[in-house]
């Protein structure tokens, strides 16, 4: 087995290759994945070969708008978008990606050890999809991937819309605590989970689709560089039209601090705060279209 020793900002573990613990765990996860799949548009399954492994992409939608690449949050797969894309799929081609190194339909074959590996993987995906330029739309870790791409490999990036991305706090302790507490919420008995408000801080962890995916994925051993803090010079380097949508009731960073930092370092980026918690409330159809369209109206 290939091993690369590297400290992951969110995990601190030694890097190897992400994989299911065994074939039974893989089959169980894929059965849950297929049962949950309810994509609202006619779609095509694509496999893009990359040097990090075959990447699964679901192509759907139509229209003359810029192609949108949809990047999901941690451990949620491309299925997280299926409740929200029917509207924007009428005038955009959509590419919903299962991120490499996470449970899903992509299969990792090479370590992903740092920011640049993430950017190199996604650059290969974008090249394989065949368009010159893309609008990257990411939620949570997907927003971090989109911003990371704009910083490290912007060649095919036309613009970025990032919904409450990670990467704005120097310490990842807050994010780790949030995730570990969220997993505990998922494991609580049903009578206790019913007390968790869907629009509350941990509401995303009682969402039926996300809970099913995460629990099915407990047999998946994730060994990738998840995300890290963006340095000042990195944020200054962003040159593509960018819109960052922050959760005002944030759990992974302070929206006011992130806004001030972006205003100082990336003044051309638009920053908007929405009075919701971190999670799916940021990308419900009216908000998703509003912010994607607003970003499309910007020029470099």
From TrEMBL:
Q: Which InterPro entries match?
A: AB_hydrolase_1 (IPR000073), AB_hydrolase_fold (IPR029058), AB_hydrolase_sf (IPR050266)
Tell me where in this chain the AB hydrolase-1 domain is found. Answer: 68-275
Source domain of life is: Bacteria
SUPFAM superfamilies noted in UniProt: alpha/beta-Hydrolases
Q: What are the annotated GO cellular component locations?
A: membrane
What is a single molecular function from GO for this protein? catalytic activity
The protein here is known as Pimeloyl-ACP methyl ester carboxylesterase
Origin species, per record, is: Lentzea xinjiangensis
